[in-house]
Specification:
156 residues, rod-shaped, alpha+beta
């Protein structure tokens, strides 16, 4: 005796209405889990990219400032270096995002500490800038760097 269809109770064959429903349920659950997971990965990747960008921007801005001939030239070169470093990662240098401070005397005097900081606000992907009134859905990212002016540098 060969059986073509599985038998239920009492020898009757089971209904075929449940066939394929496991696949539909799997796809629906996979989408419910995967879409938020993909969004989280995208958001974290964007914030991590911003963290790398600001770290590079402050380091390069400090280096070019420390090798400049004057304070004005140093601030211009620091802004240009920070702008380039941020642009490499797809970000823009906004006004007020770069701060250059000098501690311990004139800015380019030998042994002076130059403190550089960059603050960046990273918007979350696919969300409007102002979701509600006064609510900013962005992640603040910042980095600080201290560069010491070379001790053997010629004083201005």
């Amino acid at each position: 005796m060969s059986r073509l269809a599985p038998e239920g109770r009492g020898g009757e064959s089971t209904s075929s209405s449940d066939e394929g429903s496991a696949l539909v349920e799997f796809v629906a659950l996979a989408l419910l889990v995967m879409i938020p997971l993909i969004y989280i990965v995208m958001a974290v990747a964007r914030v991590q990219s911003a963290a790398y960008a600001v770290t590079t921007a402050v380091r390069e801005a400090g280096r070019v400032y420390a090798t400049s001939a004057s304070d004005v030239q140093g601030r211009q070169r620091a802004a240009a270096a920070a702008r380039l470093a941020l642009a490499d990662h797809g970000f823009e240098l906004t006004s007020g995002a770069l701060q250059v401070r000098c501690a311990g005397g004139p800015c380019l005097a030998p042994g002076t500490r130059v403190e550089v900081s960059v603050r960046l606000s990273v918007p979350l992907p696919f969300l409007p800038q102002n979701f509600e009134r006064g609510t900013d859905l962005s992640v603040p990212v910042s980095a600080d760097h201290v560069e010491v002016i070379d001790t053997y540098r010629e004083s201005e």
